[in-house]
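Subgroup meeting minutes
Present: P.N., E.W., G.H.
Scribe: E.W.

1. P.N. recapped why we're keeping a running log of single-chain structure predictions: easier to compare across weeks, and new members can see raw inputs and outputs side by side.
2. G.H. added today's entry (264 aa).
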Amino acid sequence: MLTELQRLLTDANNGVDEVAELLRRDAGLTARVVRIANGIVFNRGDSVGSLEGALGRIGYEEVHRMAGAAVLRQMASMEFAYYPISEFTFCRNSLLCAFLMEELADYAELDPKTAYTTGLLRSIGKLLMDATARAEGRSEQIQPLGKEGLLEWEQQVFGLTHPEVATAVLRAWRFPVEVFMPIRDQYLHSLPVEPHVSCRVLNLVGAIAEDHGWGLPGELVYWSQSHFIQAELRLSPDARSIIEERAARQARHYLNALNQSEHE
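Output recorded in log:
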């Protein structure tokens, strides 16, 4: 769904009707989009009863963001069993990284919508690995995540890492290489070649999220190059601070909208 929506929204010839037709394929997502549009965060008048009305209220530019966030929230509806992460922490980090990637797209000459999707899905491998382990009913004692890096812990516990899983799944879902490549290489860990600029930007985004207090466990060790990446992008400290606060404000805005839709 998300990859189809992304392709649909990047075609300037498509409008609200085409987007509505795609969203109707998922009744749960359709209902959530309508509830969000009728919520306090987006409500600017009388309530709407149709998907077209909801999309008109949210705004065409917001559709890709909101649908992506809603899909992620649906997938992260259960608490993590193996990772020391709450559903709220996971969604908060994912949204902040998405908006940071979108904000930094111009600095790195990246497509903003693709950048947003990349940031939003950067930790989806963790979600999938945890869900798979739960489904398999793994009962052995899982060692806690200590001071070692996240990738080393995952290798010991699961035998593979979340970027590997994310890459395989996103390729199977036919996401473009521009999305799964930076997710695969976001930690700049043991790479045989010079990483693409999108990989470095996602690494910087992870560091900014960490500095903001919205990071995820076990990742701090991988952000050591963030200052060099910031310099490469010619991103001044003042500009970084402005972008960080703006992205955090947008993330809170969407978290509020999603949370409100859950209770209606």
